[in-house]
Design brief:
The chain is of the alpha+beta class and 151 residues long. The chain has a domain of 91 residues: 2-Layer Sandwich (Alpha-Beta Plaits). 28% of the residues lie in helices and 33% in strands. It has a four-stranded antiparallel sheet with strand order 2-3-1-4, with helices on one face. The N and C termini lie far apart (91 Å). 12% of the residues are buried. Belongs to the bacterial ribosomal protein bS6 family.
Length: 151
């Protein structure tokens, strides 16, 4: 059961490549066991990744990057930090964090949505043409188009 004075922390640290990946994972497991022995709970297991560093730390261009989240009373953090003061850890950072709320995915907004406009229908009433005159007009229009297009 969780104490009310426990807070959520995240720990991130770099382990030297002088140690194997199995040794790095064993070190991470020992840190998790230390958190549990101090009365804490592991919130997120995290993982270990091999990363190229932006700048060399202790003459190392690469290191294993490891992190995990846990719940622990704030007065017990110092005991955990002393466990990190070993030669295999190049750097470490322990931060108090807050749980991120789960957000519902939203559809991307592409542009302004314009409502559909009603189609206006015009009813033009004209005097009916004789059948022969309508056909003649269409033939004349076809001839004019052929002249314009050069066919």
């Amino acid at each position: 059961m969780m104490d009310k004075d426990q807070k959520l922390y995240e720990i991130t640290y770099l382990i030297s490549l002088a140690y194997s990946e199995e040794e790095a994972q064993a070190f991470q497991q020992s840190l998790k066991n230390e958190v549990k022995s101090l009365g804490g709970l592991i919130d997120d297991e995290g993982g270990i990744l091999k990363r190229r560093l932006s700048y060399p730390i202790k003459k190392m261009p690469e290191a294993y990057l490891a992190s995990f989240r846990f719940l622990l009373a704030s007065e017990k953090i110092l005991g955990l930090e002393t466990k990190l003061a070993v030669p295999q850890v190049l750097r470490f950072l322990v931060v108090h964090t807050k749980r991120q709320p789960i957000r519902a995915a939203r559809a991307p907004r592409i542009g302004k949505i314009i409502p559909e406009r009603p189609v206006l229908e015009y009813n033009i009433k004209s005097a009916p043409l004789p059948d022969g005159q309508a056909a003649a007009n269409i033939e004349e229009i076809d001839k004019k188009l052929e002249e314009i297009l050069g066919k």
